[in-house]
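Re-run with default settings, no changes from the original entry. Doing this only to confirm the output is reproducible before filing.
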Amino acid sequence: MTNIKLGEVLKQARLQKGFTQTQVAERAGISHPYYNLIENEKSSRPPSFYVIEKIARILGCNAKPLLRAVELMQLEHKRKNVETMEKRLGQKSPKSHPIPILSEIPAGHPKDYNGFPSGIIEEYYRFKVEEQDPNAFLLRVEGDCMAPEIKKGDLLLIAPNEGVESGDIAAVVNGKGEKEVTRITIRKDEIILTPDNPTYPTIIWEAKDKPKIIGRVKEIIRRR
């Protein structure tokens, strides 16, 4: 099986088992919105091998061709990222820049600040980025709501000036001062916040909650 359509294979296997998308998502420990993006191949980034292996076991599928399909998707995603980087940088190598490490998500968009508010920068970390975003910052992870992909102590490179799509992991805040780093689904009048860790609940922020997307998680840095 080469060049298989991952979403089509998963859908057919699910229907043969008589499962709904919600049932598969619950058994896999992921959210229904995220599973829907995978099955309809609308996620902005390829799913992880870990997630696809779990889904394959649930549906009784041969995981090998599915993992190969994910590998090809990841290679294509990386190729497109490289092409985009080369166009933007004129094929120049990325340079190391000092990026501030924040102790918490800022309450507003960083471009609103003249620098960052005092008291939330812990230190600076030199990191190679493809394109210098003057508002980029690193956020130290305190919890485990996005485990296993993101672990406590990781540094997340937040890119406020890049577009955010459904399925992305992003830093978000609302008018009540609540702050989250989670996978998001963007709808007309609401944002759905879905932790990868199934022990945490899915949250819906409606227009009345005044949700604001601070930026996309562009890189996960695990310092040893």
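The mean pLDDT is 81. The first helix runs from residue 6 to 17.
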